[in-house]
Design a protein that fits this description.
This protein folds into three domains: 8-268, TIM Barrel (Alpha-Beta Barrel); 285-374, Recoverin, domain 1, CATH 1.10.238; 377-495, Alpha-isopropylmalate synthase LeuA, regulatory domain (Double Stranded RNA Binding Domain, 2-Layer Sandwich), CATH 3.30.160. Helix content is 41%, strand content 22%. The protein is built from 17 helices and 16 strands. The strands form four sheets. The chain has an eight-stranded parallel barrel, surrounded by seven helices. A three-stranded antiparallel beta sheet has the order 11-12-13. It is elongated, with a radius of gyration of 33 Å. The N and C termini lie far apart (80 Å). Residues 288-293 have low confidence and may be disordered.
Length: 496
């Protein structure tokens, strides 16, 4: 059984999407988005509503005259002045919207059903007389009397309407009802009909696909599901549901979906939710160790499709759920090799950061790994433990236990602060082999933001004319300082 045939897409990102609260697109931004949609293969681009303003008309006209392959459309009310303004913009078509529910007819335009039918016919004929393609749309169709809606559509067809549209204006459809309605409409009307869904109950994509299965020939969509309130049916979700789940070739260049999603997000200033289907930041990102272990064996274990299908790449992130497989894969991608002991220490440090609620970035991991790989070279001086006492009424004091050439040494020292105190204690404890080592420079960097960020401490140590630079990386600045000094000290002693 063929569920889908000759499906088209009308993208309304530049009109309904721009009605997202806080979004206002300039002429240049509309052109950039329109070009991206055209390159992706969208059939119709609703570039805006010409009645809105002179600036909006300039933007629509710029899109219409940009030489795109897509049909360029303007939204119009059933008002001849709207059509006149659309004609000024050189558009190919209009999306002519008539209120069809009694709620909208009586409270919004304060007319009756017969008046709406008559006006819709008059404006349709007017638009057709001026050479426009007309898509006659029923606003609030899902709350309209179906027989009245069919009568209005039939009037529109007689007046020359090329296409019809059913608008689920406040997202009240359910998939089962959508299929039933569109089977009825598509079999009883002699014009192709579109589906325009809003996402108030999270059903916009499901209702759109169900309507297409029932006989709709065109889906109204927006990139990233932008739109008023909870938004519209998302282009990426509808396209990839048809492509991947139903194996229907939409004709859309779906490898460009992610690029277009990012473009729209940047130009509208509306961030994509991390857990948004397909284009959200987490959609192809893996942290849990068991998932990454499965991915290493077969990518299909925890991915519904390859991220390259929409122009993305898979990501492995590290945190409290990370497993050794995650770290091994991430190190491999960085070109770093670690033995079992080194990998174990890297794993422990990542887990410590994760338990503190910290997400371990690529930069964090690289810093941790590089420090561990350096520290785990053969060391003559090794840290056993240390304790620091500090406060606004006490002199910072540090006690430390080191293993120096297989000999346990305990020492204490004071300093201007806790870091200074612990470094002084290290130098005292390691006096037998590090007496002449001088701390020349001390520098701290936070790898990422936040009070719990990974801190990298870099030190420059010298002894008898030889200088080394070493670093330590921890979420604790004192531990990072100890690590850096110990690392540099061992390198100087080994070189000597």
């Amino acid at each position: 059984m063929i569920l889908f045939e000759n499906i088209r897409f009308l993208d309304t990102t530049l009109r309904d999407g721009e009605q997202t609260p806080g979004v206002a697109l300039t002429r240049e931004k509309k052109l950039l988005i329109a070009r991206a949609l055209d390159e992706m293969g969208v059939s119709v681009i609703e570039a805006g509503s010409a009645i809105t303003s002179s600036g909006e008309r300039e933007s629509i006209k710029a899109v219409a005259n940009d030489g795109l392959d897509a049909e360029i459309c303007s939204y119009c009310r059933i008002v001849k002045a709207d059509v006149d303004h659309a004609l000024e913009c050189d558009v190919d078509s209009i999306h002519l919207v008539a209120p069809v529910s009694d709620l909208h007819i009586k409270t919004k335009i304060k007319k009756d059903r017969d008046a709406v039918r008559q006006i819709a016919v008059e404006v349709t004929e007017y638009a057709k007389d001026h050479g426009l393609i007309v898509e006659l749309s029923g606003e609030d169709s899902s709350r309209a009397d179906l027989e009245f809606l069919k009568a209005l559509y039939a009037d529109g067809i007689d007046a020359g309407a090329d296409r019809l549209c059913y608008c689920d204006t406040v997202g009240l459809l359910v998939p089962e009802k959508a299929t039933e309605i569109f089977r009825d409409l598509s079999s009883s009307l002699k014009a192709p009909i579109s589906i325009h869904c809003h996402n108030d109950f999270g059903f916009a994509t499901a209702n759109t696909v169900a309507a297409l299965a029932g006989g709709a020939k065109q889906a109204h969509v927006t990139v990233n599901g932008l739109g008023e309130r909870a938004g519209n049916a998302a282009l990426e979700e509808v396209v990839m549901s048809l492509e991947w789940l139903y194996k229907y070739d939409t004709g859309i260049n779906h490898e460009q979906i992610y690029r277009v999603s990012r473009l729209v997000s940047r130009l509208t200033g509306i961030p994509v939710s991390p857990n948004k289907a397909l284009v959200g930041g987490n959609a192809f990102t893996h942290e849990a160790g068991i998932h990454v272990h499965g991915l290493l064996a077969d990518k299909a274990t925890y991915e519904p499709m390859g991220p390259e299908q929409i122009g993305r790449k898979r990501q492995i992130v590290l945190g409290k759920h990370a497993g050794r497989s995650s770290i091994a894969m991430a190190l491999q991608e960085m070109g770093l090799e670690a033995d079992e002991a080194q990998a174990g220490e890297i794993f422990n440090r990542v887990k410590q950061m994760g338990d503190q609620g910290k997400h371990v970035t690529d930069a964090d991991l690289q810093t941790i790994a590089e420090n561990v790989l350096d520290i785990y070279k053969e060391s003559l001086v090794n840290l056993e433990e240390f304790t620091i006492v500090s406060g606004n009424r006490v002199t910072p004091t540090a006690s430390i236990k080191l293993n120096v050439k297989d000999k346990e040494i305990i020492q204490a020292a004071i300093g201007n602060g806790p870091v200074d105190a612990v470094i002084n204690a290290i130098r005292r404890a390691a006096r037998s082999c590090a007496e002449d080592i001088v701390l020349e420079e001390y520098h701290v960097d936070a790898i990422s933001g936040g009070t719990n960020a990974l801190v990298e401490v870099r030190v420059k140590l010298s002894k008898e004319g030889k200088t080394v630079t070493a670093s330590g990386a921890r979420t604790d600045i004192i531990m990072a300082s100890v690590e850096a000094v110990m690392n540099g000290m061992n390198r100087l002693i080994t070189a000597e």
